[in-house]
Amino acid sequence: PVSSLSLETELDTKGKVMRVLTAIVKFILLVGFLYMFVCSLDVLSSAFQLVGGKAAGDIFQDNAVLSNPVAGLVIGVLVTVLVQSSSTSSSIVVSMVSSGLLEVQSAVPVIMGANIGTSVTNTIVAMMQAGDRNEFRRAFAGATVHDFFNWLSVVILLPLEAATGVLYKLTKIVIDSFNIQGGNNAPDLLNVITDPLTDAIIELDKNVIRDIATGDPAARNKSLIKIWCKTEKITVRCNHIFVYANLPDLAVGIILLALSLLILCTCLILIVKLLNSMLKGQVAVVIKKVLNTDFPFPFGWVTGYIAIMVGAGMTFIVQSSSVFTSAITPLVGIGVISLERAYPLTLGSNIGTTTTAILAAMAAPGETLANSLQIALCHFFFNIAGILLWYPIPFTRIPIRLARALGNHTAKYRWFAALYLLLCFFLMPLTILGLSLAGWQTLVGVAVPIVVLAIFIIVVNLMQARCPQYLPSGLRDWDFLPRPLHSMAPWDHVVTSGMAFCGAHCCCCCKCCQSSEDEEKGLQERKKSLEIYDNPVLTRDDEPQETSKETMKATQL
Fold first, then answer.
1. What does the alpha-carbon distance between residue 467 and residue 237 come to, in Å, rounded to a whole number?
2. Domain span holding position 434
3. Which portions of the chain have biased composition (kind: Basic and acidic residues) (predicted)?
């Protein structure tokens, strides 16, 4: 008995040691994958600048269009989507203001558009989790809550700014009230860690985009790829892998785009897998309670504001709202962070990215300091005003409800996520820009009927849900319309049939015969899959615990 007891004790000791070693290895791998994830976002931004940077400079060059607030807004969205960096687009605007090509008041809508465009990155990251419906539903809701906050803030503040110039006047008062002196450059915190790897892959001369925007004809023939790098004393040849490659910017951009997306997807999948394996049992319960539990009554309201400060601080450390929001998106997907907690973290991220811009503006020369700082403060007060509109009163937290509804919708029709991305960040801004180029009469003539129709549909939908008795009998539902106009099911059938048709030509005959059966099974299991969680302990505490044995078995499987 003694020998068997000692053997069990020895096995328990070995098991504990192996468990600790496994946890350490997983943590090291998690940090390594997170580092590669952040670096891939940096390379992705460089790739987008190589592909569309000069086009972004050309867009900014048309000052007559920028004088239209709506056109300025969509140009800010498009340029930020093209260069994948609100800091880059903001710096271009600051350069144009400093050089006298653009007035500060005309630059405010562009800054608002840059605030919208920067949220495209975490939306793309959320689409990488489309393999699991539940993860995708939560991740897409966590990513698009940022989109809805930005769009709703613009809907209220852009007309207000165009009519009264409130942000311009407020920042003008702040600039005139303080004797602001230039300071040092914004501190490089995360870049110190990531630059050795990203600079070994590619280095860009971002001044080329700025010079094109400010009208320098010589900049059009320059390459964005940096060949000569300045050190403290001399100028030497750069050491990145494309320095000797005689390739055009577009070719290098496409190569880096494919490479960075591959690394981004791989790292994200591995991060999610590692988090799912590490966050099990009591560990997951403790982490979830720490992150999502409010302070006791009557101080529960303080929790959200602390989360805003945490988001602002973390974004200041990593110096990128895209990196921070993209990092928390997988955590929302696997259920560690709730949507209600991700929302204030995202709002804090919006503030954090503006503080970095303020520090960078304060490093500007004396002759351009006032204009640079005023633009940065416009960005800051825009986000503060948005938070005051959509956070303090729980009833006004509309972005959470809209994001959750969109997440449920995209979980059912996953192809809708790609349509949303194309519509909100490409097609709609391009359409508005085209109408703006045709003149404000054309823009008003097309936009006003669409806005009135959208408001009518929203009001009718709300009345159908809450007080249908006040509606005429014909408007109590949308069944009088053709089915494709009030249901996504016919469109889903078209898309899935098209995908099945394409897949049938790429598969062998036996797989072709089974495709229809698999499609029917997928349709039958669609509703069931929405009830299955990869990690049951990560479900919210207030959700009903009436999970059947069959559901638990399916989850464990």
1. 71
2. 13-202+240-438
3. 539-557
The predicted structure's pLDDT at residue 402? 92
Residue 512 belongs to a domain: no
Q: Note the pLDDT tens digit of each residue in 98-110.
A: 666 677 888 899 8
Mark the ranges of the chain whose per-residue pLDDT is less than 50: 1-8, 186, 509-517, 519-521, 523-557
The amino acid occupying position 215 is G
CB crowding 441-457: b at 16 or more within 10 Å, else e: eebeeebeeeeeeeeee
Per-residue b or e along 248-262, where b marks 16 or more CB atoms closer than 10 Å to that residue's CB: ebeebbebbbebbbe
What is the Cα–Cα distance from 106 to 120, expressed in whole angstroms? 24
Q: How far is CA 426 from the centre of its chain?
A: 15
Single out the residue in 438, 473, 489 at which a domain terminates. Answer: 438
DSSP string for 304-328? HHHHHHHHHHHHHHHT-HHHHHHHH
Domain count, the chain: 2
- What's residue 538's pLDDT? 46
| Pairwise CA distance, residues 151 & 47, whole Å | 26
Q: What is the Cα–Cα distance from 22 to 344, expressed in whole angstroms?
A: 34
DSSP conformation class of 295: P
The string of DSSP codes covering 371-384 is HHHHHHHHHHHHHH
Tell me if 368 is assigned to some domain: yes
Task: Measure the CA–CA gap between 49 and 124, rounded to whole angstroms.
Answer: 17
* pLDDT tens for each residue of 404-426: 999 998 988 888 888 999 998 88
What is the chain's Cα-based Rg? 26
Q: Name the token pair of 301.
A: 């309201």
In b/e form, how buried is each residue of 310-331, taking b as 16+ CB within 10 angstroms? bbbebbbebbbbbbbbbbbbbb
Residues 223 and 168 in one domain: no
Q: Is 45 exposed, middle or buried (0-12, 13-18, 19+ CB in 10 A)?
A: buried
- State the DSSP code for 236: E
Name the H helices within 413-472.
415-422, 428-438, 440-466
Q: Give yes or no for a contact between 383 and 350, defined as CB atoms under 8 angstroms apart.
A: yes
Inter-residue contact 146 to 346 (CB < 8 Å): yes
CA distance 394 to 397: 5
